[in-house]
UniProtKB/TrEMBL annotation:
Subcellular location field: Nucleus
Pfam families for this protein: bHLH-TF_ACT-like_plant (PF22754)
The protein, known as: Plant bHLH transcription factor ACT-like domain-containing protein
BP-aspect Gene Ontology terms: regulation of primary metabolic process
Assigned GO CC terms: nucleus
Domain of life: Eukaryota
Keyword DNA-binding: no
Keyword Signal: no
Domain Plant bHLH transcription factor ACT-like as annotated: residue spans: 62-133
Coiled coil: 8-35
Organism: Clitoria ternatea
Length: 142
C-alpha cells in the first residue's frame, strides 16, 4: 500500500511541475510575440504618407515577427523586386541577427512569401516592433 501512495505523490508533484511550466511558457509567449495589430497593419499609414518609399501601385510589405528566447521567426509577404532578399539579409546582419534558415516562395506572378529563422547575437538590442518597422523601411527604400 505504501508503494501505491508513493507513486501517486510523485505523479501529483510531477503534474504540478508541468502546470507551472505551462504557466511560465504562456507568459513567455505573451511577452515575446508581436501582436497582429502591431506587426502587420500599423505601418500602413506611415508608408502611405511617405510616397517616396513606394509607388501607389506597390503593395506595402506584410511583416510578422515572433521571438522565443534568442530565436526569431520572420514572415514577410511582399512584392517581388530585384535584390529584395539581399536587402533583407543585409538589414538582419546589421541588427546582429544570424540567419539560420530562409525560404522564398513565389505566390502568383509578382508576390513573394519569405520565411526566415534567425538567432539574436550579443549586440541585438532592437524590439520586435522596431524590427518590423525597420524591415519594412529597408525593403521599401530604393
Amino acid at each position: 500500500m505504501e508503494n501505491n501512495s508513493s507513486i501517486l505523490d510523485k505523479a501529483s508533484k510531477y503534474v504540478k511541475q508541468l502546470q507551472e511550466r505551462v504557466r511560465e511558457l504562456e507568459q513567455e509567449v505573451e511577452s515575446n510575440i508581436c501582436s497582429s495589430n502591431k506587426g502587420t497593419t500599423s505601418f500602413d499609414d506611415e508608408v502611405n504618407s511617405n510616397d517616396h518609399y513606394y509607388g501607389r501601385n506597390e503593395m506595402a510589405p506584410e511583416v510578422k515577427v515572433k521571438v522565443s528566447q534568442k530565436d526569431v521567426l520572420i514572415i514577410i509577404h511582399c512584392e517581388k523586386k530585384k535584390g529584395i532578399m539581399l536587402k533583407i539579409l543585409s538589414h538582419l546582419e546589421n541588427l546582429h541577427l544570424s540567419v539560420l534558415n530562409s525560404s522564398i516562395l513565389r505566390f502568383g506572378k509578382s508576390t513573394l512569401d519569405i520565411t526566415i529563422v534567425a538567432q539574436m547575437g550579443d549586440g541585438h538590442k532592437v524590439s520586435v516592433d522596431e524590427l518590423v518597422k525597420t524591415l519594412r523601411v529597408a525593403m521599401l527604400t530604393k
